[in-house]
């Protein structure tokens, strides 16, 4: 039960943090985004509290390292545009 609670908190944090500032914490995030991005949060930013400004900044900075699964979920949910993802990917490869 404890692991399930941690996983759910991680998923919720991911959804809020990976929006690159496009959504506020008050906005609901889809379950798809929570599930798709939980491992990205754990791998990249779990040293920060899930509801902290630091984790939001960490996930934003990790943008080009996010998994395709997470990015696709964020795009499908309207949290980030395909154009923004493409722009950041192009910048990362320059």
From TrEMBL:
Highest taxon of source: Bacteria
Keyword Signal among record annotations: yes
Signal peptide stretch: 1-28
Keywords: Signal
Name of the protein described by the UniProt record: Cysteine rich repeat protein
